[in-house]
């Protein structure tokens, strides 16, 4: 089999990937709340989450995701770390009024990107999903790991395009809601959403 999947297989993978990416989840919610803060913060978060997808692709290719599935203690440790991190981000957003325009402009470019990476990378359910999803399209054989990496990179690119669009759209909404009273309410709304996502991840 060639290094790159056959065209029908690749198109089927893209169709399945798009359907999955469009399903609302923690990644979409995080980019949405960051995009309301500022378009730039949202786009950086989207790129960070896409980088997290590449991380999970590498984990699945190396077989580490199978270890998470086989070792419940390791799975729970990663899951709770991700939940705690989301709650931490939510509390910080509320305490620091992160959705104000001044804070968005002052945040270092690496901040939103790094947070996006961690939001995605600390979700063990994504790792297990990629372990189950990629091999079915990559097929068997010695070239299977290469095909898994290529498919994972495709998924990451599709994720970046979609979440980048979410960031731009929510950034326009944020620009219309830029009064101090509104941004304070957005901080509570966005922070509360991240806390709720963290709590949901912890109890699942």
UniProtKB/TrEMBL annotation:
Major localization listed first in the record, in broad terms: membrane
Record bears the keyword tRNA processing: no
Membrane topology category: Multi-pass membrane protein
Alphabetical list of Pfam families matching this protein: LysE
Record keywords: Cell membrane, Membrane, Transmembrane, Transmembrane helix
InterPro entries named in the record: LeuE-type
Transmembrane spans: 7-25, 45-68, 122-141, 153-174, 186-203
Annotated organism of origin: Halobellus rubicundus
Name this protein carries in UniProt: LysE family translocator
């Amino acid at each position: 089999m060639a290094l790159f999947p056959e065209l029908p297989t690749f198109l089927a993978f893209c169709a399945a990937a798009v359907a999955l990416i469009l399903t609302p989840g923690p990644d979409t919610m995080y980019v949405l709340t960051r995009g309301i803060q500022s378009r730039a913060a949202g786009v950086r978060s989207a790129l960070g989450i896409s980088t997290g997808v590449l991380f999970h692709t590498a984990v699945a290719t190396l077989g580490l995701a199978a270890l998470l599935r086989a070792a419940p203690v390791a799975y729970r440790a990663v899951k709770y770390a991700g939940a705690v991190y989301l709650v931490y981000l939510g509390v910080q957003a509320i305490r620091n009024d992160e959705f104000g325009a001044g804070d968005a402009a002052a945040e270092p470019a690496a901040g939103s990107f790094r947070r996006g990476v961690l939001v995605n990378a600390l979700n063990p359910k994504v790792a297990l999903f990629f372990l189950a999803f990629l091999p079915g399209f990559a097929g068997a054989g010695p070239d299977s790991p290469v095909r898994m990496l290529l498919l994972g990179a495709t998924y990451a690119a599709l994720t970046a395009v979609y979440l980048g669009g979410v960031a731009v759209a929510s950034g326009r909404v944020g620009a219309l809601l830029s009064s101090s009273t509104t941004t304070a309410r957005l901080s509570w709304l966005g922070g509360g959403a991240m806390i709720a996502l963290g709590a949901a991840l912890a109890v699942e």
